[in-house]
Each structure stands twice: as C-alpha cells, then as structure tokens.
C-alpha cells in the first residue's frame, strides 16, 4: 500500500512520467499535468484517499524540486551491529522549528496522507512568505499506542524540520491546522526497515526492536516515530522506526 506523502514525490519512473517533467523548471503543459495528477490519483485509490484538484499546483511544484531536499541534521552517538548488519543506531537530533499537522482518520495511512497534503500546500506558497519554502527529509510521523498497547491511537502527527535558512525566522502557515513548533533536541534509538509503512508493518517493527533491545525504562513505550525517506516505486524503500529516549 502506497502513501500520498513524501514517498510519492520522486516515485515517478519512466513508465509513469517522463524525466523532463522533474528537470524542467518551465510550467508543465496540460498533458504532463494530467499524467502527473493521474499518477497521484492512482496511488490514492489504493487506500481510500482522494487527491483534490487544488493539489495540482503543489504536486507540480514539489515534483520539480524533488532533488533539492535537505537532510535532517543529527549527531551520531552509537551503532550496534550483529554479524556485520546494523541492528540499531542511537542519534541526537537538534532543537529547531518543525511544521506539524495532526490527523485522526480511520486508517493510519489515511492520516499520514491527508496530513502531508496539507504540509505540501504550506511548502508551496500557502505560507506567510508567499513562496516555495523547500523541505527536509525524512518526514516524521509520531504515533501513540492505544491503551491495549497493541494498536495505534487515531491521532497521528506528521511533521518536517524546517530548512536551515528558515530556522531563525520561520514562516507561518495559512492553514490553521498546521503549527510551527519549536522543539528541544530529541535522542532516539533507530532501526531501518524496508517496504511499506502501514499500521501492521510498523507494529511488527516495534515488536522486533523491543526484542533486540530488551526491556528498559529509558525509552518511551507509549509513543514512537516513523521516518520516511524514499518513494513507493522503490521495491525495498527505506524507512526508520524511532524509539524515543526519556532523557538526552
């Protein structure tokens, strides 16, 4: 199951969209625009999400700028391997401003998709600066566990770290659902996984990382984060599960 999210912005292979669409800074002609919109609608239909026509402009803008994303900065703390394979890493991410939106749709995938479409519009001129802002990767989704400890709560927060040039004077969103939030540093234990990001696949990864780490009170067990890096056209696309430390 694919997501209408960061993953879709560079998931347009040669059979779906000609390379010159992403490389050409000129406005797309009608045929190119229709092909791009059709691709997004096809992805959306796999999990009951509709892409409204007002997303046409943001989709085009972010497709053109898909190669100009800043990596989210971090300080590596440790890396733990077994038989040459990284089991997990520990990192410290800096304080800074994040653009955040929370959704509580029926499906985890729907919440992420709808939230990111809002963030796309913020990035593409629906902001107090009135211009394309640029973005960072990965995009982070914060999830909380329900009381049963097995399923996710409905509300999912999706966020991205504002680019370095905007950190000192962050633009505000025209959408009241989007908040610009200054957050303190966060220290995480992270493990990569590959493929789709659904409640089922993320839930399996949570159990797996707890098995590797063993029980500890140093990590939150009621909240986690999922970091998304790559597009749905990649068969084994890269994601990360983040366990959040209680203290730095």
List key phrases describing it.
9-stranded antiparallel sheet; two-stranded parallel ribbon; 11 strands; globular; alpha+beta; 6 helices
General description of the model:
The chain has 248 residues and is α+β, with helices and mostly antiparallel strands. The protein has helices at residues 6-9, 20-23, 30-45, 56-64, 108-123, 199-213; strands at residues 69-71, 75-82, 85-93, 96-103, 135-137, 139-144, 156-161, 179-183, 186-194, 219-228, 238-245. Strands 2-3-9-11-10-6-7-4-8 form a 9-stranded antiparallel sheet, with helices on one face. Strand 2 (75-82) and strand 3 form a beta hairpin. It is globular and about 55 Å long. The relative contact order is 0.18.
Q: Structural class of the secondary elements? A: alpha+beta
Distance between the termini: 35 Å
* Helix fraction by DSSP (H/I, runs of at least 4): 25-40%
Strand content: 25-35%
Q: Give the overall shape.
A: globular
Report the biggest beta sheet as strand number plus sense, adding barrel if it closes. Answer: 9 strands, antiparallel
Helical run tally: 6
The number of distinct β-strands equals: 11
SSE run: HHHHEEEEHEEEEEHEE
Which residues form runs of ≥5 with pLDDT under 50?
11-25
Any idea what the radius of gyration is?
A: 18 Å
Strand order of the biggest β-sheet: 2-3-9-11-10-6-7-4-8
Q: Averaging pLDDT over every residue, what do you get?
A: 86
């Amino acid at each position: 199951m694919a997501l209408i999210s960061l993953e879709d912005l560079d998931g347009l292979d040669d059979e779906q969209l000609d390379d010159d669409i992403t490389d050409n800074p000129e406005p797309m002609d009608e045929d190119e625009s229709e092909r791009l919109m059709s691709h997004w609608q096809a992805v959306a239909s796999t999990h009951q999400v509709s892409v409204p026509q007002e997303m046409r402009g943001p989709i085009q803008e972010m497709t053109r700028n898909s190669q100009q994303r800043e990596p989210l900065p971090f300080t590596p703390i440790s890396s733990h391997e077994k038989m040459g394979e990284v089991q997990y890493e520990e990192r410290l991410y800096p304080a800074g401003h994040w653009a955040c939106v929370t959704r509580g749709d029926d499906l985890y995938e729907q919440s992420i998709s709808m939230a990111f479409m809002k963030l796309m519009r913020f990035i593409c001129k629906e902001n107090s600066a009135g211009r394309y802002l640029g973005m960072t990767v990965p995009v982070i989704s914060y999830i909380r566990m329900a009381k049963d400890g097995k399923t996710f709560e409905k509300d999912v927060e999706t966020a991205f770290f504002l680019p370095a040039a905007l950190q000192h004077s962050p633009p505000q969103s025209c959408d009241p659902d989007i908040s610009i939030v200054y957050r303190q540093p966060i220290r995480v234990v992270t493990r990569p996984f590959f493929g789709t990001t659904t409640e089922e696949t993320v839930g399996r990864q949570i159990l797996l990382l707890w098995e590797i780490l063993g029980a500890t009170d140093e990590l939150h067990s009621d909240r986690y984060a999922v970091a998304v890096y790559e597009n749905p056209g990649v068969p084994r696309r890269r994601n990360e599960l983040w366990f959040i430390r209680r203290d730095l």
